[in-house]
Amino acid sequence: MTLKIVLDPDAGTAPYEQLRTQISELARSGALPVGFRLPTVRGFAEELGLAANTVAKAYRALEADGVIETRGRNGTFIAAAGDAAERHAAAAAQEYAQQARRLGLSRADALALAEDALQAAYAVK
Asked: Model pTM?
């Protein structure tokens, strides 16, 4: 299995974020199965024409999100985290709900603000 990542230099999104997003989506969809070994940071950076720090930044973000796991010298692999993304999102949503309530926002206002944020985040660019 080969890892197909396409970075758009003209996109308004940083290369590390494009890389992070694509690997995350491939893992979530099952196109990258649990246990799939990702290329080394240096090797992947060479392959993609990026700085090693750019790939390392994407890998750190993916690891923080529970998408990948680093096993020291053995490499970096797609994690068996199951619904890690959903757990992180649920925790963020819970924190938002508590914060909105502490600020005295009505439920309708809190929902409207969340909807605006989601529309902005998912807007097609």
From this structure: 0.69
